[in-house]
Every structure is written in structure tokens, then in C-alpha cells.
Amino acid sequence: MSLTIFIAAIVGLLVGASGCYFWRESQLRQQLSEVLEVMQPADYREDISLPMLSQLRRRASISKQQQQQLQEQLFSWQSVLQEAPIGYLQVDAENQVLWCNQTAQNLLQIQKWHSARARLLLELVRSYELDRFIEKTRSTQVANELVWQFHFGYHEAANSRFSKGEAPPTIWLKARSLPLADGVIGVFLESQQERVETVASRERWLGDLAHEIRTPLTVIHLLAETLQSKVTPELTRWTDRVLQETNRSIDLVQHFLELSQLETSATEYLRLVRVDVVRLLRDVWNTLEPIATQRNVQFIYQGPPQVVLDLDLDRFTQVAINLFDNSLKYCPDRGHIWVDIYLSPPDPLVEHSNDSGINRVEIDLYDDGSGLSTKDLPYIFDRLYRGDLSRQRQSSGKSPSDSRTTGSGLGLAIVRQIILAHQGTIVANNHPTTGGAWFHIILPQVTGQNK
Questions:
Q1: Burial classification of residue 5, based on how many CB atoms lie within 10 Å of its CB (0-12 exposed, 13-18 middle, 19 or more buried)
Q2: Helix or strand or coil: residue 307?
Q3: pLDDT value at position 353?
Q4: Average pLDDT by consecutive 10-residue portion of the chain (451 residues)?
């Protein structure tokens, strides 16, 4: 009896062990099937008659080959970027430099960098502007562009052509960022130094030329004034024409000199005082109101009754005169010119600080004329650019000779430089509601009380 029980127990154990074995094998097969499914390459058809272990070995081999191909492609792209004439660097989500080519190392004076050792960007490149630029790209997930003046630190300049005791050199750089996966940011870099130096050289040449021309023009003007009182009445119209043209040429030269001064060292010539912008705009409009009244053009202001800024009063008055004059020339009879002012909260990605807690004042000046030509918009602030002469506002009833053709083509260029000197921006477009010319100005760092 006991033998029977013993045999039954043994059989039971064997049956249980067999069941566990087959259950475990089934689980392993299920897991192996899942692994094979994950490892199956796209457009790959496996012979299902093969044992699973053989399938696994084959797919592991294919996966290894694909990994090698990806490594080769990565190495190939890195080799291309390494020899590229444009700089490239890549940082991870923690702003650690993952990779950078030789051009980027030269532009940013990166010393002793190695891809095997992760280092923060700020450890290698002491550029707050570049660091904030990368953070902005990561935050917005939009490609951005930055042009800035990179200042070499003393430790970076030590290995460059840099005399001891001198201030570290600087270089103008342009960066273009690209958001990648997992917070990684790619940045392309190129030097703008040659372009900046070429522009500066051209500006110096134009300034010198304007200085040389101003003296003979003044002499011609004085001679014409002297002759005007001595010629016969029949010839007076000719002396008047000479005076008119010399006055226009002298104004053009003066505008050139003024623009060159603003472009080279604008902040040195600013005389900042506390100015109520609303009152300034109203005063300028009152000066031009007789011209507006003749054509029944109305001025409409929308915004706070008072906005106080630190401005150069004379320079900003010049901005207002030029912009109002521009709108009056293009505005139709019985038209309207609007000025809207509103206060904007600070940009969290831009560092400003002031007592009022308001970092930006935005000014919109627009009219209800025919607007600016799409072809002209990219060049509207370029010096000597006066747009397509055929694009005169038909509603104004003027011939081209009565409108902007009499200007120097420097008015809006001067406006832009004055705004830039105040650390602001100005953009020209056509207003979405009225269709007329629209100038959008942003001025930072409000002071005083804005009511």
C-alpha cells in the first residue's frame, strides 16, 4: 500500500514538474516572440519555419549591422561638419556640450575640449548671450537667430594674438539655433566680423565724403544768395533754383553725417531726459496740423494719458516728425492717422529691471492709406531708399514730384537708428485693419509713473 502511495507521489511530482516546465517554456516563447517582434526590421520577412533561437540570432545580427551603419553615418556627418566652413555645436538638455566642430572651437576660442568629457557650455564659452539664446530656443521649440558681439575672456585671449595689458578682443558672430529631440539644441555659427568691418569702412568713407562736399556746397549757396540780389528779374528764377538745389544737397549731406554719427556711436550723443511721450506726440502733431487741416486729415490717439520715458527729446521729436510727415504724404484727403500706445509686461527671456515693473512701451502709428508695397517693405529703412515712385498714394491726389521724391531718402533710416540708440526696435508693415502704412515701435525700460 505504501509502495503504491509512493509511486503515485512520484508520478504526481513528475506531472507537476512537466506542467511547470511546459508553462515556463510557453512563457519564454511568448517573451521571445515579443523580443523578435520588437527586433523585426521594417520590410523584413523572416522564415517562420526557423526555430525561435535561430530567428533571434539572425535578427540580433541584423540589428548589429544596422547599428554599425548608423555609427558610420554619424561619423560621416561629423566628418562633414568637422570640415565645414561654418561652426556647429550641440548641447544637451543640461546645456552640456555634446559635440562641436573645429570651426566652432576657433570662433568661440574653446580650449581643451574633448567629446568624452561632458562639460557645461558656460565653462567653455563665457557668453551669457549665447547661453540665453539656447535657453530661449529650448523654451519656445522654434529656430532662432542671434547676432551679437562675443567678448573673449582673458583666458581665451591668452592663446590668441593678444598683447598683455590690452583689453580682450571681440568678434561679431551670428548664431542660428535648431531644436532637436530630448532638449538637445544644435547651433550653427558664422563670423560677421568681416561684414561689420566692411560696413564700418564704408560708413567712414561716406562720412569723410560728406564732410568734403559740405564746404563747397556752402560756398555755392553763399554765391547764389549774393547773385540773387544782383541779377535781373528774368534770371531770378534760375538763382532761386540754384538755392533750392543747394539747400537740398546741404540737407542731404547733413543727414548723411547725422546717420553716420548715429550708426557709429549713437549712445554718446544721446542726452536723456524724462519725457512724456504722449505730450511730445501731441506737440509734434500740433506743429504739423496746418498741413493736415488743408486736407482734412484727423489725428486719433488711443492709450494712457501719460507715458514717461528716458529719451533724447530732440532726437525723438525728429522721429515723430519724420513718421507723421511720412503718413501725411501718403494719407488720403479726409483720412486718419492713429497713434496707439500700450504697456507690455517684460519678456521673461530678456533681462530688464526698473522701478515701475513695466519693461516695454509699444507705439503703433498707422493710417488708412493704400499701404506700403510688399516689394519695398524689406528696404524701407535702408538709406537713400525711397520706394517705387509709381507707388504714390492715388487717394492723395499728388504727383510724384510733390511727395516723397523731394525727400532725401534718409528720413526712415535716421528714425530706425534713433530707435536703436534708445535700445528699441521699429518694424514697418501694413495695418491689418486699415490697410495703411503701420510703424510698430517697442521702447524698453519705462521710468517714472505711467497713468
A1: exposed
A2: coil
A3: 41
A4: 67 65 64 60 55 65 69 64 81 90 88 77 88 92 91 57 56 92 92 85 77 82 82 82 84 76 71 93 93 93 93 91 91 94 69 52 93 87 66 44 49 89 92 93 67 51
Of 176, 174, 201, nearest to 186 (Cα)? 176
Cα separations (Å) of 115 from 98, 166, 168? 6, 33, 27
Q: What pLDDT does 295 receive?
A: 92
Under 8 Å between Cβ of 304 and 267: no
Position of cell 557668453?
127
CATH of span 84-191? 3.30.450.20
CB contact at 8 A, 354 and 426: no
Helices 52-83 and 2-39 cross at an angle (nearest 10°) of: 30
Superfamily of domain 270-444 in CATH is: Histidine kinase-like ATPase, C-terminal domain (3.30.565.10)
| HSE-CB for 134 with a 13 A CA cutoff | 25
Q: How far apart are CA 414 and CA 421, in angstroms?
A: 10
